[in-house]
Design goal:
The chain is α+β, with helices and mostly antiparallel strands. The chain has 4 helices and 6 strands.
Length: 162
């Protein structure tokens, strides 16, 4: 990985990125209401929605859904602005791992490192970007890792050919 002097950079296209580029987010604190609200809607397991049941669980207290951790990390990375106009969506997430529980009051930060850039052979206006993503809590502990696969336009002014 080569260090970049011009970070942070915003609204990049595939041809403007290099393997090793790193993007870091600001923080977001998750309160108990945030965790319970998300879980009631999307992942209503007792250790996400019921503080007393969570205390009795092997987690010893309320924790955020791993899915919430993932979407918070994604939002934080998106808010950095490094990949906005070029983003054509993605075919998936590889190697998603929840390493450590996220608890009420934790402040999450996300980072992404470009690990691979592959121009498309069939559609020259775009390519695939692989990003190694980490979410960390306020103590700097890794709570989640994933590899995001994103399809992105290669250059400014390119119009996607569908």
């Amino acid at each position: 990985m080569k260090p970049r002097d011009d970070a942070p950079r915003a609204n990049l296209f595939l041809d403007e990125m290099e393997v090793g580029d790193r993007f870091e987010s600001k923080g977001m604190t998750l309160g108990e209401a945030d965790i319970v609200g998300f879980a009631r809607e999307w992942d209503p397991q007792p250790f996400h929605v019921d503080a007393e049941a969570a205390r009795r669980s092997h987690f010893g207290g309320l924790i955020a859904s791993g899915f919430q951790t993932m979407v918070v990390a994604f939002r934080l990375l998106y808010q950095t602005g490094f990949l906005v106009d070029a983003n054509l969506g993605g075919p998936g997430i590889d190697e998603l791992r929840w390493i450590k529980p996220v608890r009420p009051g934790d402040t999450l930060r996300a980072s992404a490192v470009v690990t691979e850039i592959v121009p498309s052979r069939s559609k020259p206006d775009r390519g695939t970007l692989r990003l190694a993503v980490e979410a960390r809590n306020q103590a700097g502990e890794v709570v989640m890792t994933a590899t995001l696969v994103v399809v992105a336009l290669r250059s400014r002014g390119a119009q996607p050919a569908y």
